[in-house]
Each structure stands twice: as C-alpha cells, then as structure tokens.
Amino acid sequence: MRVYLDNAATTPLDKEVFDAMAPYMLEHFGNPSSIHGHGREVRAAIEKARKTIANLLHTSPAEIFFTSGGTEADNTAIVCTIRALGIKHAITSRLEHHAVLHTLQMLEKKGELSLSYLRHNAQGVLDLEHLEELLAQNPQTLVSVMHANNEIGNLNDIEAIGTICKQHNAVFHADTVQTMGHYRHDLQKLNANFIVGSAHKFHGPKGVGFLYADAGIKVQPLIHGGSQERNMRGGTENVYGIIGLAKALEIAYRDMAEHQQHIQGLKDRLIHKLKEQVEGLTFNGLSAEADKSLYTVLSVSLPPSDITEMLLFSLDINKISASGGSACSSGANAGSHVLEALGIDPNRGNIRFSFSKYNTPEEIDYVAAKLAQLYKKVPA
Ligand SMILES: Cc1ncc(COP(=O)(O)O)c(C=O)c1O
Questions:
Q1: Is 150 a pocket residue for ligand 1 (Cβ < 6 Å)?
Q2: Burial of 61 (0-12, 13-18, 19+ CB in 10 A)
Q3: Which of 122, 170, 212, 318 has its CA 20 to 30 A from that of 68?
Q4: Which of 92, 149, 150, 152 to mutate to test the pocket of ligand 1 (most atoms within 8 A of CB)?
Q5: pTM summary value
C-alpha cells in the first residue's frame, strides 16, 4: 500500500479536470491576445472560466484576475495595497504562510510599512479584541489574515474579521488558499477586499490561481508587460491551467457536501485510532476540533522519542507521504514558524496529515497501525 496524506501541500489532478484541459494543449493553442479565430476561441474560453469562478463566489468576472498561483495572488494583493493605496501599516499574524509573511516583512524592511502582529493563544486562536485595538490606533491599515492555517488547520473567523475591518475602513486580504474549493465563499456576504485561490489545492493543475480584487480598490500590476488581465497582470495566459482551475472549482462546489462528509469521516477515524493506539499523542492547535479546523488537515504531536528526528523518513519507508516540522528553537534550520509561534516543545515530533476525496478508510487504518508500531505502543 502507498498512501498519500499530504493534500495540503498539493492534490492529485482530477481526471475530469485533465479531460477539460487537454483540448487546450493540443487543439486550441492560439494566443488569447491574437485577434484572429485561433486567438478568439481561446479568449472566449478564458472569459468563460472567469465567469464560472465569479458565479461560484457570487461576484463579478471583472473582479477575478488569473495568476500563477496562491503566492502571486497574495503578493499582488499586499504589494498593490501598500503601493497603490499608499497604506503604510499592516496587521497580520505570526501564523501566516510565508507567501504573506515574507512579503509583508520585505516591505517592512524596505521601510514601506510598519507591521503589527496579532496576539494569539497557545492553540493559535487570534485575539480579535487586539485587532480592534490595533485598528483604532492605526486608521489606514491593511489586515492580512488567512482563512485556514495550512500547518495546523485552524479556521479563522474571516466573517468577523471582515466586519471589524469594514467598521474601521481597513483593507482586508484573506489568504483563502487552503479553504478555496473546500468551503463556499460568498463575496456578497464576506467583507473581504481580496481573497485568493490556487488550483492545485483542489485537484486542479499546479502553477495557476486567481486573485479576487474588490472593484472598489484600484490596484496596480505586480507583473508588468502586456495588457493581459485588463492591465493587471502582464504575460500570455496559462490557458489550459485557467481552464483546469475553473473546472476543478466547479467540481469542488458540485461535490462539496459529499466530499466534506467523506473526508471528515477519515479525519475522525484517524483521530480516534491514534488516540487509542499512541500514548502521549496530542493534536496541535484546534486541529482535532471539528468545526474549528479544516476537515482536510490533522496536525499530530508525538511525545519525544529516539525516532523523532526520523519520523517522516520512517513513514516514507513505510510508503506513507505526509509532512511535518518541529518547533525549531535554535532557528538554525528549517523548523516550522507556526509550531514555534505556538510554543510547542521542540523535542516533540509533529506530523501534518492532510486528506482528499481519494483517500480511503483502509489507508487511514494502515497509517494509524504503522505509527503505533513506530511508537511501540501497539496494544497486544
Ligand atoms: C495558506 C497558503 N497560502 C499560500 C500558499 C501558496 O500557494 P501556491 O502554492 O499556489 O503558490 C499556500 C500553499 O501551500 C498556502 O497553504
């Protein structure tokens, strides 16, 4: 058995998505900026894809911009807000993805903004009273907070954060990479100026994503060049990627309830088996709490042991792909900034299991049994 439980890193492409993309690799190869027939048919397909995404998110196609993925969409939202709107202060958390953190820290280093970090507790729950305090002190602010944490799975209340931002006239960017395609986003209700998506996180192709940018905000391009994406993003479009992105989101919305139930079932099964079979095991953040964490992610913390350093390698030898990280205290090597910010004991082993619609209960049982064996706590 070979088990893939690293779906927060990337997901396998859905065959239905591939079938939608293939004609745009082989037959419809025109450049969408060309005005002849070969170009026009591809332009029409891109605009149809844009409309599909806009309809699913309850917004207008004019507010959807295609990018090379989540990182570029996050960068565009942040850099443009700071540079185009002249905002000089940003609020974020230490638990954000590097696509957000490193971008904000780069701007801070260059003296283009001052940066405040939201307080959070040991489980990674953000302090929204602190957000209100910071906003009261800093009227012109960009708030960048993720919807769900990619390492520990915590869901942040972006509806509440959006409302607070609106009350204070702050710009709100929500990194929705881990929730896009897994939860419904209704931009008629959500007070966010920017949200993002990355196709490879929901069974679409790699290297393509999108930015939703509120039409009320006049942003400028991050990538300069041609007039593609209504002058917002230069460069010939990743045509088959865009077709795949829209198809993948369409399928994700179509089958969401069924997949959510299946995946939550797998997660609950793993929680139950691991609790039963591995002594001293705990869960990071809100990972084990059903309504407060991504149903696709379970972050497990294992007691210190002589195999801690070799944990992922040991799983890999057993044909289990998962990811992990430690709360590296020295800062010398690539530890997890999220686990470190939560103050997790660096001697514990941490594994992030992340699930998809393709995983099975048999795979879960296999993984739980292998982990129990590694920790030599298997009941007789
Ligand atoms: C929360 C979050 N933001 C941004 C990204 C970056 O997305 P991409 O891989 O499409 O650049 C990721 C990818 O892991 C993520 O989990």
A1: yes
A2: middle
A3: 170
A4: 150
A5: 0.96
Which residues, at least 6 apart from 149, have a Cβ–Cβ distance to it below 8 Å? 95, 124, 156, 178, 285, 294, 338
Do 343 and 327 meet the contact criterion of CB atoms below 8 Å apart? yes
- Two tokens, residue 147: 């919807």
Q: What is the DSSP string of 252-302?
A: HHHTHHHHHHHHHHHHHHHHHHHHHHSTT-EE-TTTT-GGGB-TTEEEEEE
The string of DSSP codes covering 360-371 is -HHHHHHHHHHH
Strands 171-175 and 141-146 turn out to be parallel
Amino acid at 343: G
Nearest residue by C-alpha to atom 7 in ligand 1? 70
Query: Rounded to 5 degrees, what are φ and ψ at 278?
Result: -120, 110
Task: With beta carbons less than 8 A apart as the criterion, state whether 175 and 147 touch.
Answer: yes
Query: What gap in Å lies between CA 254 and CA 256, rounded to an integer?
Result: 6
Per-residue pLDDT of the chain (380 residues; tens, 9 = 90+): 899 999 999 999 999 999 999 999 999 999 999 999 999 999 999 999 999 999 999 999 999 999 999 999 999 999 999 998 989 999 999 999 999 999 999 999 999 999 999 999 999 999 999 999 999 999 899 999 999 999 999 999 999 999 999 999 999 999 999 999 999 999 999 999 999 999 999 999 999 999 999 999 887 899 999 999 989 999 999 999 999 999 999 999 999 999 999 999 999 999 999 999 999 999 999 999 999 999 999 999 999 888 888 889 999 999 999 998 665 544 444 689 999 999 998 889 999 999 999 999 999 999 999 999 998 754 44
Please identify which of the residues 115, 256, 328, 341 carries the catalytic annotation: 328
